[in-house]
Specification:
The protein is an alpha+beta fold and 173 residues long. The protein has a single domain, classed as Gcn5-related N-acetyltransferase (GNAT) (Aminopeptidase, 3-Layer(aba) Sandwich), CATH 3.40.630. Helices cover 21% and strands 27% of the residues. The chain has four helices and nine strands; from the N terminus they run βααβββαβαββββ. Strands 1-2-3-4-5-9-6 form a seven-stranded mixed beta sheet, covered by helices on one side. A two-stranded antiparallel sheet has the order 7-8. A hairpin with a 2-residue loop joins strand 2 and strand 3. Helix 3 packs across helix 4. The chain is globular and about 40 Å long. The relative contact order is 0.16.
Length: 173
């Protein structure tokens, strides 16, 4: 991990974070691309298919990120990826943190963690019109892996990052 990426800390999101997360989701730069915050209820935090993270810089929370097993849903658009592959979604909640390079940096840090844990690939699916997200994912090592498509979660541009050949890691489920 680079020195700049190590500036970010990730702690598990809990039901106690819902008010902050919902507040961030109401920000115009987030609500344009995200529907109502999911999970909507504290009980939904128990879904073991999804790991939810609050991203902080210098102890100050500013972003949300989640990673999930792409094989946890029937007919998921990333189900063709190998076992152990993870999907990610994220947003920067604080408007004053946008446009400073934080997105690509913390995304790359978490993707490296997932690779270190054994994920052979990490996929993401920004809306095809979300140029800012597509650019951030590109800077973090993702490449488009197919044309834009309609999914049950909306219109997406599939993007994938692959663990470097020869890199080892523990198994991720």
């Amino acid at each position: 991990m680079s020195a700049s990426a190590s500036r970010y800390s990730f702690h598990s999101a809990t039901p106690g974070d819902l008010d902050m997360l919902r507040g961030w989701q109401r920000q115009p730069h987030v609500s344009r691309w995200w529907d109502a915050f999911d999970p909507e209820t504290p009980e939904e935090f128990d879904d073991l298919r999804v790991a939810r993270w609050i991203v902080s810089l210098g102890g100050t929370p500013f972003a949300y990120m989640q990673d999930y097993t792409v094989h946890g849903w029937d007919d998921h658009h990333f189900a063709h990826l190998p076992p152990g592959a993870r999907g990610i979604d994220q947003f920067i909640g604080r408007p004053d943190m946008i446009g400073q390079g934080h997105g690509p940096a913390f995304i790359a840090a978490q993707v490296q963690t997932l690779f270190d844990q054994g994920a052979p690939a990490v996929a993401t699916d920004p809306h095809p019109d979300n140029a800012r997200a597509i650019a951030a994912y590109g800077k973090a090592g993702f490449q488009p892996s197919g044309p834009p498509q309609e999914t049950r979660w909306g219109r997406v541009l599939p993007m994938t990052a692959w663990r470097p050949v020869g890199a080892s890691g523990a198994s991720v489920t």
